[in-house]
Amino acid sequence: MAVQYLTEHYDDKDFVSLKGYKAKGGYKDLEKAFKLKPKEIIEMVKASGLRGRGGAGFPTGVKWSFLPDNGEERFLLCNADEGEPGTFKDRLMMEKAPHQLIEGMLISAFAINSKKSYIYIRGEYEYVAVILEKALKEAYDAGLLGKNILGSGFDHDMDVYRGAGAYICGEETGMISSLEGLKGQPKLKPPFPAIKGYLGKPTIVNNVETLAAVKYVIRDGVDAFRKYGTEKSAGTKLFSVSGDVQKPGNYEVPLGYPLKDLIEKECGGLLPGRKLKAVIPGGSSAPVLNAEEAYRATMDYECLAEMGSMLGSGAVIIIDDSNCMVDLLHVILHFYHHESCGQCTPCREGTGWIEKLSRKIVSGSGRLQDIDLLDKVAQNMKGRTICALSDAAALPTISFVAKFRDEFEFFVREGRSKVKGNIYAQSAH
Amino acid sequence: MPKVHINGKEIEVAEGTRLIDAFLQNQEEIAHYCYHPGLSVAGVCRLCMVEIEGNPRPQIACNTIVQDGMKVTNKSESIKESVKWVLDFHLINHPLDCPICDQAGECELQEQYMKFGQYDPEMGERKVKKRKVVDLGSKIVLDTERCILCSRCVRFTDEVTKTKELGIFNRGDHAEIGTFEDKPLNNNYAVNTVDICPVGALTSKDFRFKQRVWYLQDKETICPGCSTGCSVKAYYNEKGYFRLKPAFNEDNNGYWMCDEGRALYRHANKEERLLQAQVKADDGSSHMAPGAATKKLAAEIQGLDKQKVAVVVTGQYTNEEYDQLISEWLKPAAIQQVYHWKNKEDEWGDFDGLLLRRDRNPNSKGLQDRLQKASLVNDWSQLEKNLEAGQVDCLVVIGPEIQAYYDDMQDKLKLFQKAKKVIWLSSNPVENLVADYHIPMKTYLEKDGTFVNYSGKEQKIQKMQNIVSQALSLSDFAYLIAGKEIPLTGAAS
After folding, report:
1. Residue B256 Cα distances to A326, B156, B230, B247, B259, angstroms
2. Using CA atoms, how far apart are residues A319 and A407, in angstroms rounded to an integer?
3. Quick one: which of A259, A387, B122, B446 could link to B442 by a disulfide (CB 3.0–4.6 Å)?
């Protein structure tokens, strides 16, 4: 069953304003947090099992505890770049409940003793940025930001920073570079941002949904937060379901929720007469599941990892039998080729190479050995670069070729799509 | 000090050593392009992959600091396979135009392919087209198709010169090195980017297409361009000298040299040289062999009053030559009128912050020390006074080898003209010079010896090949002018 935990008041049109938000108990949890010691909050977040909702799924409290205790200024960055194709949950959260995010960020900033935070929002979300900026102003006017917040003695400033639309700026160190005014390119690790991040200072980067969820750990306590989800995947999660379902959209469900139910119960099932072919469960960089796997999968970090895929950002792309997998892979590879920052050689050159190979197959002039080559090149792009963009192109390639090889071979042999026929010869991207 | 096992060998390295340096210092082969010890770590070429025991993922050696007890290998099959693939990634869009590329023969792509690659390429798609023959300024040409985007040149202009002319524009496989609008790469250290470019992307306008590098040999020497005394390598063959490049010298110039210094091979080549001694005769001037001319001169000045013979010396000769000059001629002949010609001495302390010093002589210090020891230090104004008073019958000017740096040359020529007889020693013709004798000298590339740099460090120069075989060293001149024969072996170089 879908739940309304983080999204409880999203139907309330006033929830977007400070007044409406406060009417539902808003900022009460910040007051509560101020009565705790920062260390206690970090321990609570650790105990809650909250994991990063942006893609990597790293335990949030553990990430916070990496900050060095050296008295240096610390920064909190909210990753609202939401660039992973298929993902649109952060947009909803910021659009409907900007104060929920601000409150979550303030609690987090208090926990890690940060006096300055930025919300890095993708440039395409212009109207969302306006909503956030308005909310920040309300918060400043109400003494919820700035000096001595709610008489706690805690000072904090928050700003919205608009990106320019590069996928790579959603990678945490790429985002830091961009925020520093540099070209948005990931930084070499180590050192990790918790040690040396924004402007060389200790920095924590968390996703919108993660930061909002922190509020609920404080509000309800560890046990209540853990009421939802599984042992290793605690809490609820927003899934952005897109593709061939009756009702695509954002759905909040407890982690561990069966994918089959998500498709059939929440999203109203497939379109009439169609059969499920595949699901990309965690954004376009996640390895694809075939229908059989998809119907067995539960939406949590461990089950999807076991199936060789990942929960990622929670972007669930439903693919029915009217789609050509060869064409889909080509679209994905076109994206990653376009978005590669070009620093690391395997990614810079590899993303271009596999896109060309897929284009060749899609345009009907591929050779059988090109299918193997696609796989071989992708295998050698994997795990060799500074950030995960190379893997993001490699993993779908490897899984598409492994699981839908028959469609690739058909395309090569016949020069046309097994599903869609000869419509690609001219229209290849 | 931490110990590390590299491919089974136990090696001790200094605290904080980068793993890649531990490999290189111990002659363990490791593929790499972007790493350069004189620059920050970029970690982008992804070639220096190693396996570290206990770490499931391969790591890059350039961004790993050695820790005690680390066990590292780059000889496993999986690492070798990785390196092959990463090399292949470097080459798939490279034009492979080695036959017309100036870097061929000293290209890291060629060398590392032979060492670590040797795979059968499978890339059959169209290569990415980029700009070729891009003019980056007065000294450097860029071919962006050959570029492997290692970013060494960008880091050099960011970190060493801090002039920031270069950047990487665009992204992905369309990324290109380039300069910003109206900001050409013309700084005085720009050509270092050509040296550190591992491929033929950046080439020097001065050197490109002059010689294939495999027809050149090289030897290390000291740049004569200023008192810093950078270690350099000169490249040459039977046709002459073709270029200078910096040689690594930890205590002095590090990995770099300035572009002005790079030009200091041209004056050594035949077309620029004074080939024969010029001797003034009643009917104009005549050419003589340098040795014979000096002998003739020796006979002429023998009878002169030694009080009226003056010698002007510049700091562009070797210690050994000054020693011979003093011990073989000045002392025995009791010549006291010795003057050190210092161009713009009041500015000698000036320094550009990197390498170049305003004292444009490689051996001012060596000369000063020797004149002092021999009690031959005289005030320049004394020479001017004597010249004005017509007290100088014969003036021997041991002139600068690199004349361009003496911007008071023309003024001095006029001053020196007041001597009854002017003898000029230099390797190259001198504009507007009217001398009774002009004796051709060897350049720094044609002799052995030592220079003392600004900090008092004595450094060796070495002979490569003679361009003007009859030209004299200052030692040769000292023997001949003193009426002696040049010893066949020994100090005279």
Report:
1. 52, 10, 8, 8, 10
2. 14
3. B446
Is A427's pLDDT higher than 70?
A: no
Average pLDDT over residues A59-75: 95
Task: Give domain limits for chain B.
Answer: 3-91, 98-103+124-209, 271-481
The correct CATH number of B3-91 out of 3.75.10.10, 3.40.50.620, 3.10.20.740, 3.40.50.150 is 3.10.20.740
Closest to A256 (Cα-Cα) out of A291, A278, A290, A232:
A232
What distance in Å separates the CA atoms of residue A349 and residue A108, rounded to the nearest whole number?
A: 40
The pLDDT value recorded for residue A425 is 53
The arrangement of strands across the sheet holding A276-280 comes to A249-254, A236-243, A315-320, A276-280, A289-290
- Our CA-based measurement puts residue B52 at a distance from the nearest CA of chain A, in whole angstroms, of 15
Question: Is the Cβ of B262 closer than 8 Å to some Cβ of chain A?
Answer: no
Peptide bond into A59 cis (omega under 30): no
A69 in Cβ contact with A204 (< 8 Å): no
- Would you state the pLDDT for residue A423? 62
Decide: residue A126, CB within 10 A, 0-12 exposed, 13-18 middle, 19+ buried.
exposed
Give the per-residue pLDDT at A429: 47
Our CA-based measurement puts residue A119 at a distance from the nearest CA of chain B, in whole angstroms, of: 25
Q: Which fold has domain B98-103+124-209?
A: Alpha-Beta Plaits (3.30.70)
Exposure b/e, B401-438, CB count within 10 A at least 16 = b: bbbebbeebeeebebbebbebbbbbbbbebeebebbbb
Residue A342 is nearest to which of B122, B126, B149, comparing CB atoms?
A: B149
Token couple for A337: 């080729």
Say what the pLDDT of residue B182 is: 85
Give, in degrees to the nearest 5, the angle at Cα B47 between B173 and B246.
95
Could you tell me the end-to-end alpha-carbon distance of chain A, in angstroms, rounded to an integer? 40
pLDDT at B492: 45
The beta-carbon neighbor of A352 closest among B82, B149, B172 is B172
With cut-offs at 50, 70 and 90, classify the pLDDT of residue A1.
Answer: confident
Contact assessment for residue B38 and residue B256, using Cβ atoms and an 8 Å cutoff: yes
How many Å apart are CA A297 and CA A258, to the nearest integer? 6
Q: Could you give the CA distance from residue B274 to residue B277 in angstroms, rounded to a whole number? A: 8
The interface predicted TM-score of the complex, written ipTM, equals 0.93
Pick the CATH number of B271-481 from 3.40.50.720, 3.90.550.10, 3.30.230.10, 3.40.50.740: 3.40.50.740
B128: nearest CA partner in chain A: A352
Give the mean model confidence (pLDDT) for residues A63-72: 94
Q: Which of B85, B126, B149 sits opposite A348 (nearest CB)?
A: B149
Q: Which domains, from first to last, does chain A contain?
A: 13-223 (3.40.50.11540), 236-320 (3.10.20.600), 325-414 (1.20.1440.230)
pLDDT digits (tens, 9 = 90+) for A120-173: 999 999 999 999 999 999 999 999 999 999 999 999 999 999 999 899 999 999
Chain B: residue whose CA lies nearest to A336: B172
Q: What is the pLDDT of residues A275-324, one digit of tens each?
A: 999 999 999 999 999 999 999 999 999 999 999 999 999 999 999 999 99
The answer to whether domain B3-91 and domain B98-103+124-209 are alike in fold is no
Nearest one of A68, A38, A58, A52 to A202, comparing CA atoms: A68
- List the one residue out of B87, B68, B88 whose CA is nearest residue B4: B68
Return the pLDDT at B283: 78
- The residue ranges of chain B whose pLDDT is under 50 are 491-493
Per-residue pLDDT tens for A163-187? Answer: 998 999 999 999 999 999 999 999 9
B 329-358: CB under 8 A from A:
none
Mutate to test the interface with A, among B45, B55, B85 (most CBs of A within 10 A): B85
